[in-house]
C-alpha cells in the first residue's frame, strides 16, 4: 500500500498503484518501437529516415510523440552518432560502417510518458565500441539495482559512476535523468554520479528515468550551434542507455523492458 499521495518536500511526485499500469503501457510502446527500429539501422541509412519510421510507428499506435514540439524540437527521436553524447537531431547524413548510435524515443499513451534509449550499430561493431556499449549498458543496470525504498538517489549515481570509472571510462555530468509520469521532465534530477547515502530518499510511487552517458575519453561536453546536439569536447566516443522505472515496495519495476528481449548492447 502506497502511503501519501502528492509530492515529497523535494517536489518528487508519489504515484498511486493504478498509475503503474499507465506507465507500463507507455513504456511498452516505446520499447516495442526501439525493438522494431533495429532492422532499419545499417550503413547508408540516414538518421532522418530512421526518425521518419519512428514517427509512423508512434502514429500507427495512436500515441503521441513527446519530443515533437518540445521546446521547439521537431522530431520523434534523438539520434546521437559516435561522439554525439545526446540530443542528436535526425538528418540527411548517411550512417557509415561501424558507426554507433543511440536512439532515444519518448511516447505519450493515455497521458503517461515512456522514455527509453538504446545503442545500435551500423554494420560491423569494433571491439572498442563493443566495450563502451557493454560498460554503459551494465552501468545503467547497476544503477537500477540500487533502486529500492530507503536507498537514495546518491546510491544510484554512485553505482553507475564507480562501475564506469572502474572500467576507465567517464560519466557525463552535464545531463541527467529526471522524474516523469504525466509530465516529461519533473524533479528530481537523477545524477549518474554521486556519493552513497546522499540525495533524496527513494520511496514507493516515485517514477523516473536513469540514462547514463559514458565516454571513452573525458566527461566534458559542449552543445553545437543548433542548440541541441551535445558532443564530447575531446571528440571521444560516447554511449547511452535509458530506462523509465518505478520504485515498488520490493525494489524496482522497469517500464521500458524490451518485449522481444532486445534491450542489449549489440543485437549480435
Ligand atoms: N528523451 C530525452 C530524455 O531522455 C529528451 C529529449 S528532448 C528533445 O530526456 F527535445 F531533445 F527531444
Ligand atoms: Co529521459
Ligand atoms: Co530519453
What would you give as the CATH superfamily?
A: Creatinase/methionine aminopeptidase superfamily
Structural domain count: 1
How many extended strands? Answer: 17
Q: Do you know the CATH architecture? A: Alpha-Beta Complex
Largest sheet: 4 strands, antiparallel
Low-pLDDT stretches: none
Strand and helix order = EEHHEEEEEHHEEEEEEEEEE
**Between the first and last Cα atoms, what is the distance in angstroms?**
42 Å
Number of helices: 4
Ligands in the structure? 2-amino-4-trifluoromethylsulfanyl-butyric acid, cobalt (II) ion
CATH topology: Creatine Amidinohydrolase
Helix coverage percent? 10-25%
Query: Into which percentage range does the β-strand content fall?
Result: 25-35%
Radius of gyration over all CA atoms, rounded: 17 Å
Description:
The protein has 268 residues and is an alpha+beta fold. It has one domain (9-254): Alpha-Beta Complex (Creatine Amidinohydrolase). The chain has helices spanning 19-37, 47-60, 127-145, 153-166; strands at 6-7, 13-14, 64-65, 77-81, 84-86, 100-109, 112-121, 170-171, 177-179, 186-190, 207-210, 213-215, 221-223, 230-232, 238-240, 243-247, 252-254. The strands form 6 sheets. Strands 3, 4, 6 and 7 form a 4-stranded antiparallel beta sheet that branches. Helix 1 (19-37) packs across helix 2 (47-60) and helix 3 (127-145) packs antiparallel against helix 4 (153-166). It is globular, with a radius of gyration of 17 Å. It starts with 5 loop residues before the first strand and ends in a 14-residue tail after the last strand. The model has no long low-confidence stretch (mean pLDDT 96). The structure holds 2-amino-4-trifluoromethylsulfanyl-butyric acid and cobalt (II) ion (2 copies). The site of one cobalt (II) ion has 5 residues, from strand 6 and strand 7.
